[in-house]
Design a protein that fits this description.
about 300 residues; two-stranded antiparallel ribbon; 7 helices
Amino acid sequence: MPRTIWSGAISFGLVTVPIHVVSATEDHSIHFHRVHLEDLARVRTRKVCELEDREVSSDEIGKGYQLTKELVVPISDEELRDLPLPTAKAIEIVAFMPQESIDPLRVAEGYYLAPDGQVAGKPYKLLRQALERSSRVAVARYAWSGRERLGLLRVRGEAIVLHAMRWPDEIRDPSELLPPPVELSDEEIDGALALMDTMTRDDLDAPEFRDTYTEAVAELIEAKREHREPPSAPEPAADSGQLVDLMAALKESVSKAKESRGEDTGEHADVHEMPTKRAAKKQPARKSAAKKTARKPRKSA
């Protein structure tokens, strides 16, 4: 049983559901220690008081807010816990809405909300079934670890899941990151849709969704333990720096995707480089037409 992170209640209207919160995820990453490379001894972080120049224990450490350069205001965990907030003791549902109306970028880590005791069983099931039948999620407010947050409650199987949510001002505006205006043809969009069709999956259980990075790190550790050479990384494809015929690249991608799934590929298209607009303008009309003819994708027999 995962450890309890927080205990309290879910409240919506006059209904209260006593719950305790546990993490909904597990960390299977490979973790490393910091070591002294000369002798591989552990390197640890020491907590030192700047004024007394001595190491202090965890019991002597608290929170402080730097108000000015000379003034620090101490704040205790008890003071944060006793803030006059209705969300300090409860996950307070403030609205219900369709899940698709919430930007996934605002949804963060997830937790399971487990009913706390027999008395919580009926209101817990009531909320879960109401969310399920309405095909909605609940948006709530709660306060943990010294800050108030928004949360999203949804159904997963027989359980209710709470996802932390970011506040609107925590999401950056992407407008300055967008590419310059470009034109796309209907044929190019249809090609992208055809590629999407060949790559569509019904779930995330396929082999391509496994954690290959952790597998590679584990293999590296095993190879070093056995004093043998680790597997070498594949050579990256050379980047020509030239523009690529987008339609040819889409057709080639569709063909390869179908081949990987054992489907009939039909027509084959080669990916080839396109001349830049500046280079094309410098060519005489006759030579430019000849080059254009020579660059047509070849059909396989």
